[in-house]
Design goal:
mainly beta; 4 helices; five-stranded antiparallel β-sheet; 2 domains; 11% helix
Length: 199
């Protein structure tokens, strides 16, 4: 491990040790560490190594937050980093879903599969694992036994990217536990009438 001086670092403290406060903009001595970060039972490959400062562990905030299905935004005027989970996206009704079966019928991308056991829920794609929320990012149709995954999960997949424009879009109504195909027109988006099986 190497020691490295940094002027300012934005990181997430993942320790229960009492924090120490230093002068803003001052320099601190940090140590690169090969400690692994495990999220929901799976190791995460970070683009930058974890840092140790005064016994506290720091990880790249944006990268780890994204893996945990959070959006990160920096407000320059307020010098504030905002973390927001994707619950508001679901409640605003902007979440779209795609059929796993229809995705895998495409010949130009690797096979996508869903693996769930216990508290672990992962998309397997091109040799990589991606965590998804089993409530907001996933829908299982009890009538057709088809599985659907959200557009937000698909957007996080590494290359080769899946061309979603050629696939049908769906929306989920959690109140009546139904999934509906979305008909896209040049003027608006409307839900198609559900089939008799889904009533």
């Amino acid at each position: 491990m190497k020691k490295y001086l940094i002027g300012m670092m934005i990181g997430a403290i993942i320790t229960t040790a009492a924090p120490s406060y230093a002068e803003i903009g001052g320099k601190v001595e940090a140590i690169f560490s090969d400690i692994k970060v495990n999220i929901n039972g799976f190791d995460t490959d970070l683009s930058d190594p974890l840092l140790i400062i005064n016994g506290n562990s720091y990880v790249p905030l944006k990268e780890v937050a994204t893996q945990m299905n959070y959006r990160v935004k920096y407000h320059e005027s307020e010098r504030t980093i905002e973390l927001r989970n994707n619950l508001d996206v679901y409640y605003l009704g902007n979440q779209y879903y795609y059929s796993v079966k229809e995705i895998n019928e495409k010949k130009d991308t690797p096979t996508l599969s869903l693996v769930t056991w216990g508290i672990n829920h992962n998309v397997l794609y091109n040799g990589e694992k991606y965590i998804f929320d089993p409530i907001l990012d996933y829908y299982y149709d009890n009538y057709t036994h088809e599985k659907y995954i959200s557009d937000q999960v698909l957007a996080r997949l590494a290359a080769p990217k899946i061309n979603l424009e050629s696939l049908k879009k769906y929306k989920v109504n959690r109140e009546d536990n139904n999934i509906y195909e979305v008909e896209v027109t040049s003027k608006n988006i409307k839900l198609s009438v559900p089939t008799e099986e889904m009533d």
